[in-house]
């Protein structure tokens, strides 16, 4: 894989989805330990990472959390893992792990399927401000 930052977890997200972009902004604001870097699924690097980890990008309708050299997570499990890393009150979301992944992902898929209808869609991926540029790969 091309120059991925060491000791950083990579969040791959739908760069044109308003809900996804709001989630990225939320994570950046609460990532006090500077754990995450972000890549739009539609970008060259996003496509390359998906191929590398064996995820068919055309069939993925989800956020992906990629911990280089360790593992990757998607859908509800990725969201829970991200919340745990943010710590504090957000780590309480891990209580959702008591529900089977299949049930969590059913709810996740319902939201994902309706995200453009409910939250809208951008014409292109967001361009990070100069202050946030270092967070994006």
Automatic annotation (TrEMBL):
Transmembrane segments: none
Listed Pfam families: DCC1-like
GO molecular function: protein-disulfide reductase activity
InterPro entries reported for this sequence: DCC1-like, DCC_oxidoreductase
Signal sequence coordinates: none
Top-level taxon in the UniProt lineage: Bacteria
Cited PANTHER family: DUF393 DOMAIN-CONTAINING PROTEIN, THIOL-DISULFIDE OXIDOREDUCTASE DCC
Protein name, as recorded: Thiol-disulfide oxidoreductase
Source organism of the structure: Flavobacterium pectinovorum
């Amino acid at each position: 894989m091309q120059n991925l930052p060491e000791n950083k977890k990579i969040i791959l997200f739908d760069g044109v989805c308003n809900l996804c972009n709001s989630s990225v902004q939320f994570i950046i604001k609460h990532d006090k330990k500077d754990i995450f870097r972000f890549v739009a699924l539609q970008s060259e690097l996003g496509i390359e990472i998906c191929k590398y980890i064996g995820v068919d990008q055309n069939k993925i309708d989800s956020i992906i959390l990629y911990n280089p050299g360790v593992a990757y997570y998607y859908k509800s499990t990725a969201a829970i893992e991200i919340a745990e890393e943010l710590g504090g009150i957000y780590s309480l979301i891990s209580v959702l792990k008591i529900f089977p992944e299949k049930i969590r992902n059913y709810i996740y898929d319902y939201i994902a399927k309706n995200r453009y209808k409910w939250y809208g869609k951008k014409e292109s991926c967001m361009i990070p401000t100069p202050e946030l540029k270092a967070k994006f790969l």
